[in-house]
Amino acid sequence: MVADKKRKKNQGFAGGFIAFFSSLKLTIFLLITLALVSIIGTVIPQNQLKEQYLRYYDQSTYATLKSIGFLDMYHSWWFVLILTLLAVNLITCSWKHFPRAWHYFSHPTRILDKTLEKGSKLVWRGPLARIPEDPQSVLARLPEIWPGKWQLEKKVGQNGEEFHFSAEKGRWSRLGVYFVHLSVLVIFAGGIIGSIFGIKGFVNIPEGERVSQFYTYGDQKVPVKLNFEIECRDFSVEFYKNGGPKEYSSDLVIYDQGKPAAHKVIEVNHPLSYGGYTFYQASYGTYGGDVEVELHLPGGLALPLKLEVGRPQRLPENWGWIEALKVDNDYMRMGPAVLLLRDAGQGGRPYQYWSFLRFPAFARQQSKNGEYCVFKNLEERYYTGLQVNRDPGVWVVWTGCLMMILGLYVAFFMSHKRLWLRLEPDPDRPGRGRLVLVGNANKNQPSFAHEFDAATEKLKTWKSGL
Amino acid sequence: MNTYIFSIVTFVYMAAMVVYVSYLAFRRPLVARFASLILLGGWLAQTAAIGLRWYESYQLGIGHAPMSNLYESLVFFSWTIILVYMIIEYRYKLSILGAFVTPFAFLGMAYASISPSVNETIQPLVPALQSNWLLSHVVSCFLGYAAFAVSCGVSITYILKKRYEDQGRQGGMLAAFPSSEVLDDLVYKSIAVGFPLLTIGIVTGAAWANYAWGTYWSWDPKETWSLITWFIYAAFLHARITRGWHGIKAAMLSIFGFVAVIFTYLGVNLLLSGLHSYGGG
Ligand code: HEM
């Protein structure tokens, strides 16, 4: 008695908890809430820099939105709370329902009793000339009416000994729903693993250079060391006629402890993976490359030179120094131009002037001392922009996704079909028997009804000869 | 050439829609037969034109499946709606639904052909879209959307019929409709087809994003809206088995689900544009 009371009291709390969290109404509420609140983040741009927000919100709105988590809402405590509640709901619900489903699965109904007969839509009854002596011979022939493994149970009923035959297909399809529910938890787990152990960042590598770290996103770009080096050997980009990029690719080489360890030409949609990291072609850009000029000296001598922006170059003999200070792609609307600093030495003062790619004659006309410099070519240098990513949870997520798709297929398109056949003495006609066939399918009943009809047709042809 | 055929198809679908609606009024089997024939004719022409457009893109040297811009996807969406509808009409012999489903296909085609903001030309693909994932992703999403369009059409029919039955009325146009149970079952069946397809669409999209950008999920508005749609249909599936939530409330959820589909598909690009764009550099 006491123990009983105690259990009841426990059930009061635990039972209440289970009843609340296993309720489908809570599921519907949570799913609709998730749908509604998710809208917020599609209207308010997420995870932008403060300066960007201050362009469309004033300071106090910005502060309010930030404090309630609307600027990074999918990671805010309340969004995570809703997801957690859904997970708890799912676990509690499965906890409560699964044992019953499992019992149903592991203890199939073998006896065709009156309740089953009454509650079924597909029922057929027929007379039988005599009760066969050997039910095993009937069992052997049953696959002819419906293919599958048939089982036999004997039982003494009101009118004498009855034989109950039963067969089923797709019993495990009943578990499909649980597989779907489990898959949701697996996907959650994958996401959590990724957010704890994963890391994301980017790195820009100039053509021909090697790096061994990348930077995280966000306001503070934190450098992350790699235990190998990555080199961009070459970068190339092709354009469509309308000027949009068609294809760009980077020739990457990985050096592990100084030795080449991997090599791949990556492009958008074709990343390179090494050492747990994946490198994606994300962007590209140009930076001041080499400037090719021709320096014409007063004596008529023309000197071809290749200048690196920002690095002074010493000329032969005692002709002094020259430096390309900067390159402007469209200086004074006259196209690309280079700003040169010339120091002829010999006590003269250094002076600067612009030289234009498209107007080579200009340099000569402007010259005061007979010396001029023609801008011949700008060899642009590209850098490749790589996204760097490590996410150990990604395989867990894919496993969950696969489980979900398979589970959905099973849950929606596979059915559990059952047939029962009872052979019993006919109380009204001593010595003779009768047959009852009952069918049941949990899905797609119309097509199962056809199978059932076909089975009854077969049975009709045999009933006298049994 | 292909766009010319598509404009004709638009008118054929309009004609089919009108005949289906008149079938609602007259209920002569011959009218339904006629409507189905017009629809089938339009659909075959559309199929041919999609093939032609595909071929023409190769002629232009920028060959790709015709599903890469708004125009092409609207055309493909209408095509899948009619395909799914015709299968249901054939299997369940329910011509009455035509009046509620064909308008979606017609509106899609009309919007594609008439709106000046929809560019009809065949355009080259930006690098991010050059992937085999594109095809599986787009096809599964749109087949799912088409199934949801059908479920929305049937849900509207269901609500009308259910009201009518609850009021105990007889006669009139609604008398010819299948019983509310049959309609309810059809709503469920089309969602049972659409939900796994949408799931596959979201998963292939995530797989593609992971492969191309290194993140399977980045809460971009388009992704988020597809998830919102998925939540609503998941809610529908559970609402149906809950006392107090099945019937009209569940049917309303399926209609909201389709509103979310339309928003995922069009609204995100039109209203939330600027946040979702492809391309690097
Ligand atoms: C995102 C989360 C969920 C997904 C994707 C999901 C998916 C599904 C699917 C596809 C079905 C089959 C529906 C049908 O056959 O018509 C189903 C059934 C069901 N779900 Fe969920 N579900 C989720 C969450 C939950 C939660 C939290 C509960 C807890 C109460 C729950 C309880 C049930 C029950 C009781 C059934 C009916 C099982 C049966 O027919 O035997 N589900 N769910």
Please describe what this structure looks like.
The complex is a heterodimer of chains A (466) and B (281). With 466 residues, chain A is α+β, with helices and mostly antiparallel strands. Chain A folds into four domains: 2-102; 108-170 and 417-462, TBP-like (2-Layer Sandwich); 180-284 and 384-407, no CATH class; 287-382, no CATH class. Chain A is built from eleven helices and 18 strands. Chain A has helices spanning 2-21, 24-43, 50-56, 59-67, 77-106, 114-118, 135-141, 176-197, 360-366, 394-413, 445-462; strands at 122-128, 150-157, 160-169, 199-206, 210-216, 223-239, 245-256, 259-267, 272-274, 277-296, 302-308, 313-314, 321-328, 337-343, 351-356, 372-390, 417-425, 433-441. In chain A, strands 4, 5, 6, 7, 8, 9, 10, 11 and 16 form a nine-stranded antiparallel beta sheet that branches. A five-stranded antiparallel beta sheet of chain A has the order 1-18-17-3-2, with helices on one face. A four-stranded antiparallel beta sheet of chain A has the order 12-13-14-15. In chain A, β7 (245-256) and β8 (259-267) form a beta hairpin. In chain A, α8 runs antiparallel to α10. Chain A is elongated. With 281 residues, chain B is mainly alpha-helical. Chain B has one domain. Helix content of chain B is 74%, strand content 0%. Chain B contains eight helices and no strands. Chain B has helices spanning 2-26, 29-59, 70-92, 98-114, 132-166, 180-213, 221-240, 248-271. In chain B, α2 runs antiparallel to α3 (70-92), α3 (70-92) packs across α5 (132-166) and α5 packs antiparallel against α8. Chain B is flat. The model of chain B is unreliable at 273-281 (pLDDT under 50). Classes of the chains: A alpha+beta (466), B mainly alpha (281). The interface between A and B is large, with 51 and 47 residues. Bound molecules: protoporphyrin IX containing FE. Protoporphyrin IX containing FE sits between chains A (22, 24, 27, 86, 89-90, 93, 97, 177, 180-181, 184, 408, 411) and B (234, 237-238, 241).
